[in-house]
Design goal:
binds pyridoxal-5'-phosphate, 2 domains, 12 helices, seven-stranded mixed sheet, Aspartate Aminotransferase, domain 1, four-stranded mixed sheet, Aspartate Aminotransferase, domain 2, 19% strand
Length: 387
């Protein structure tokens, strides 16, 4: 059997992970700023997460939400501690795209309106509904027709928000666009988006799958902007490495959903509940959002200083530990050179190198990154000027 090649191989065989590091089969250590697309934000093999999973595994692994179980009750109590606004209801799924699907279905059911507005450079997942609100044509076009209608507006452009009207059921937005190039929303944009959607009776879905759970310096990235969504999706980091996602909503929406409107075989299974419970504990006990904020500020400052002399660096940007280095050239070569120098990173958009560091990254790790990145950019520039 062979794996279907949806991802080009990084030619690296990883056998172990701990904290911000992973090791290959030859014993070489890597700083992991790829972190499984940001999943390992609490560090690989986080002790508390592993403990909770091991204990749960020895009790019961599968149980649908039709049956009660103590670990899910514990999880709900933990989630209360990271609650945003009036989003008191949660449903667990297995992947980010599924959380988005539930959000989109909910908006359709509640408003009865079909049109959804999304933003240019957005990414919301790969299943038909999520794909329909994802900007990248390369992902979308081979699979059209997709559910719709969907209209894409320019991100961070307040004027564009005038196009949101009463025919729109939902607007879906990332508080920091991840896959699209690490682009933080502006406060003015998010505040106006909240105001307009409220005025027009449009549900605001904030997709926190990548930015959420502490990475940007707040538990939820939208908290930087002083707004509350109508529906919020979360995923990636919320299980500390275990695959789990969630859709959150207030009572007034949840009350209108009925039995059979949605469902899942695995969603909310006891292992996922254990993982989320442990992850919230880790997040709060270690002041993870605060650490992510401080380290992110430091990392971005170091990157800006260290890269100022490079003509091919357009911008260093981000929020907390969600950081992008935007180049004037294809970042593929630089990412490869960084990997050869022991630092794993990931591309975002067309020209951006993305760093999704685990929260325990330290100054030494950051210096390691700067050295590897400088080498990567130097070699890329050299290759271009000599060809
Ligand atoms: C990764 C991502 C998704 C999709 O999550 P999967 O777990 O890959 O399905 C959705 N929205 C955002 C913002 C993401 O970054």
């Amino acid at each position: 059997m062979k794996m279907i090649k949806f991802y080009s191989s990084r030619n690296l065989r990883i056998v172990k992970g701990e904290g911000q590091y992973v090791w290959d089969d030859k014993g070489s250590k890597y700083l992991d700023l790829h972190a499984g697309h940001g999943v390992a934000f609490l560090g690989h093999n986080n002790k508390t997460v592993v403990e909770y999973l091991e204990r749960q595994m020895s009790q019961i692994m599968t149980l649908t939400t039709a049956f009660d179980t103590p670990i899910r009750e514990e999880m709900l109590r933990e989630l209360d501690k990271v609650k945003t606004g009036d989003l008191d209801n949660v449903f667990l799924l297995n992947s980010g795209t599924e959380a988005v699907e539930l959000a989109l279905k909910t908006a359709r059911k509640i408003t009865g309106r079909k049109k959804v507005i999304a933003f240019k450079n957005s990414f919301h997942g790969r299943t038909f509904g999520s794909l329909a609100v994802t900007w990248n044509k390369k992902y979308r076009e081979p699979f059209e027709p997709l559910p719709g209608p969907v209209e894409f507006l320019e991100f961070n452009n307040v004027e564009e928000l005038k196009k949101i009207d009463e025919s729109t059921g939902a607007v879906i937005v990332e508080p920091v666009q991840g896959e699209g190039g690490v682009i933080p929303a502006t406060e003015e944009f998010m505040k106006e988006l909240r105001r307009v959607t409220q005025e027009k009776g449009v549900l605001l879905i904030v997709d926190e799958v990548q930015a959420g759970f502490g990475r940007t310096g707040k538990v939820w990235a939208h908290q930087h902007f002083g707004i509350t969504p109508d529906i919020m999706t979360a995923g990636k980091a919320i299980g500390g490495g275990f695959p789990v996602s969630a859709t959150f909503m207030p009572d007034w929406i949840a009350e209108k959903l009925e039995e059979g409107d949605h469902g899942t075989t695995y969603g909310g299974n006891p292992m996922a509940a254990a993982a989320v419970t442990a992850s919230v504990k880790v997040l709060l006990e270690n002041n993870v959002p605060q650490q992510a904020w401080e380290k992110g500020q430091m990392f971005m400052r170091m990157l800006k200083e260290s890269l100022s002399e490079f003509k091919s660096v357009r911008e260093v940007r981000g929020l907390g530990l969600m950081i992008g280095v935007d180049l004037r050239l294809n970042p593929g070569k630089a990412i490869k050179v960084m990997q050869d120098n022991g630092v794993l990173s990931i591309k975002a958009g067309v020209t951006t190198i993305r760093f999704l560091a685990p929260f325990m990254i330290n100054r030494e790790d950051m210096e390691w990154t700067l050295n590897a990145l400088r080498k990567g950019i130097t070699e890329t520039e050299g290759k271009i000027s000599s060809s």
